[in-house]
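User: Structure please.
Assistant: Input sequence and predicted structure:
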Amino acid sequence: AWALGATLTAASGRPISGLGVASPGDDTAFYSFYTCIQNCTGDFAQSERVYELNRRGAFGRTPWVYDLGASITWTHEVGAGNLRASLAVFNLFNSERVLQVDETRESDIGDRNSNFGNPTGWQAPRFAQLTLALDF
């Protein structure tokens, strides 16, 4: 007996945020949604720093991702059991959508990260899986 199958996955893109390395009112370095835009050199605790708030998703979204898969299965009776052979192909059209980008807007206080917004992760390429099973 033969069986055909298909899967379709559609996922909206994720928000792209811009992370800085400090925050107003705090004198330690850590990732936050604030980036320094003026008076950024010197001690973290200096009060002259001017920060800009970059809300979550302020830099858009990654693209929608679509993934179509297909499978075919052959089943045959063997004695008291069943032999099953399946071939499944994932990402049938070999889409290469971006899933993740560099969200670090500052590499150091006041220094813009030149990689900000560049892709860092993509959907998996097309691949196939062959499965043989004996049920008894």
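The radius of gyration is 25 Å.
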